[in-house]
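= Protein in question =
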Amino acid sequence: MNIQTIQSRIEKLQADSPALFGIMTAQHMIEHLILTVKLSYGRIKIPDFEPNEKQLAQKQALLFSDMEFPKGVKALGLPESLMELKYANLEEAKAELLKSLNAYNAAFQENSELKTLHPRFGKLSHEEWERFHTKHFDHHLGQFEV
């Protein structure tokens, strides 16, 4: 992931930036991205599983086409309501996101064959995570017009 590009986009984000859709605040959205990035380099572990045919079809459709990240998709394993904020403020969350992105890049530089679990799609390679993160980040940053 290009950290400079992400950094320039999130710099425009303010605590009171309104969302075009969804229930997340700007800080909730950044913290959601942090969780996803940490998951992608194995910092957060989930139980191993094999995706079913439907999940594999969803993976193919999202990662290997021009399909945009769908609005209203609920992340597996997350509650229906907003999660409690972990960081003191938006600026602290932004800093943690950038730190997590650096750790993600380092993990895949150290082990280019690394595959880590996505909660819906099963084990993903670096290339697959890059495709996922690009669409996921564009979806959520676009949610706040940044």
